[in-house]
Each structure stands twice: as C-alpha cells, then as structure tokens.
Amino acid sequence: MPNNHSQPLVPPHGKKFDLDDYAPGYSGGYDRARAEAEIVALRIRLNDLQDVLYADRRFSLLIVLQGIDTAGKDGTIKSVFQQVGPLGCSVSNFGVPTDEELGHDFLWRYHQRTPKKGSVVIFNRSHYEAVLVERVKNLVPKETWQGRYDQINQFEDLLSRSGTVIMKFFLHISKDEQRERLQERIDNPKKNWKFRVGDLDERKLWGDYEDAFEDMIAKCNTASAPWHVVPADRKWYRDVVIAQALIERLEALDLRYPPAEPGIKGLKVE
Ligand code: ADP
User: Fold this and answer.
1) Taking CB atoms and a 6 Å cutoff, what residues make up the pocket around ligand 1?
2) Using CB atoms within 10 A as the burial measure, which of 8, 66, 131, 202 is most buried?
3) Residue 152 structural domain
4) Is the pLDDT of residue 157 over 80?
5) Contact of 158 with 97, CB cutoff 8 Å
6) Total tally of structural domains belonging to the chain
7) Domain membership flag for residue 212
8) Residue 95, in any domain of the structure
9) Which atom of ligand 1 is nearest to the CA of 134?
10) Which atom of ligand 1 approaches the CA of 133 most closely?
C-alpha cells in the first residue's frame, strides 16, 4: 500500500534537517473517521505480514520509536500492533541505564535485544538516547556523543547486513500538544502514574531536545535504516502513517511461507 501523503515521511538523505519544515499537525487530507476506518484493515494486514515474516525466517524487523515525552510511543505500540500476537513480536523499553549497563559500551544493552531472524522487536526508546538525553543533560562529554552518530550508523549497518530490516520513527508533536498531554496526565487519575514532576523540567529543555533530534535525523538517516518523521499531534493519523510505512516495507521483502516437505501432498491424517 503506497504512502500517498504529500509531506515527505523520510527526509532527503545527507541534508541538513530542520524540524520546522515538518508540521506536527499535518494529517494528509485524512479526518478522524477515515483514519479510524482505515487502521482496522492496516492492523490486520500487518498481522498477516508478521505471520509470514515469522515463518519465512530470512529477515528480522527492528522498529525504533523516539520522540519527546508524551509524543505517543506507548500509544503507537498499543494501536498499530493491536492485531499482532506475541508470538515473534516483543517490545523492549529502555530507561535509565543500570550500573551493569554503564559498565559496558553504550550499544551493549541494545545489541542484546535486537531481533533474531523471523522476529519483530520494537525499541520503545533506543540507542538514540545516547545522543538525546545523554547529550541534552550533559551526561557524557561532547566528544563522546559527537562520535556516536558514526558508531550508530555502523551498528545499524551491521544489523541490516545481517538480515535486520530497520524502521525508525520519530514522533513529531508540537509544544502546545505536549502541554495538553502533560496537563491531562495531571488531571486524569488514570494517567497520573505517567506523570513525574521532573517532566516539567524536561519540558524546559524543549529547544535543546529539538536540536538533538535534528542532528539525530540528519546524521543517521541512511538508506538501509531511514528515519520517518511522523506528524504525531493527531494520534489517529500517526497510527495510519506508521502502519502504512511498515506494511510497504514488509511487502517489498517478498516474504514467503517455506515450501512443504516433499511427499506430503495428498497425505491423509488417520
Ligand atoms: P517513558 O518515558 O519512555 O514512558 P520511563 O518513564 O521509564 O519511560 O522513562 C525512561 C527514562 O529513561 C526517560 O526519562 C529517559 O530519558 C531515560 N533514559 C533512557 N535512556 C537513557 C540513557 N541512555 N541515559 C540516561 N537516561 C536514559
């Protein structure tokens, strides 16, 4: 299924990247009703493709989700993968590194969680935190995070040459939308658990995060592991965009169910 939206989803490779050129509220001519109708079929198609990916065993799929707090990483997983069963599909969340993890190189904890052939793994936050929060909060020296873009590109190149298809999605929301979502987390008792007072301090770093996101996208947008800049103020459009992109990529793999063992045609089970 082609993505026929007019705002480019994958920025041109190797160019300077400015988030201001991408409208977080863009909805590609969709309205909520159309998106909610379409996502139902897209979820089913995604499940069919995941099933054949699992059987085929030639490729694995790594999905990377990044975005500022409240950008909708959890919501995307719940919605887009609603029909995909747990067989061969899992989510890896990455929070503050443990002492054990800090005792290794920065890619160590991520490499262990990459998908094996036939599997899908969704990185909810990812190795990109090493050039996002670690940069913005000065957790490592500048020389350290500056060297990481190349290291990340090499890591992803290794994975993709080993049969891992990498799809990276940056969930792009506006600062106004974040205010509303944070307020909702304060006002709605069912969402209080998602809110920490420290989130308000993070919001003050909005501009620094934007700079870090722009560099991440400009420097690590490669042909084999492209960044998709997803307009994410409207959750229903965000889900359609991501589902369509995944379907399009998986369809291009020409996945096949393995052939039957010779001699089983016509066998009758007694
Ligand atoms: P989320 O915000 O993704 O729903 P959590 O509430 O568990 O999940 O937050 C995870 C936290 O871990 C975030 O504040 C994020 O900045 C932090 N984190 C992730 N990776 C790193 C890292 N490499 N170094 C420091 N902090 C990190």
Assistant:
1) 69, 94-97, 125, 129-130, 133-134, 139
2) 131
3) 19-251
4) yes
5) no
6) 1
7) yes
8) yes
9) 24
10) 16
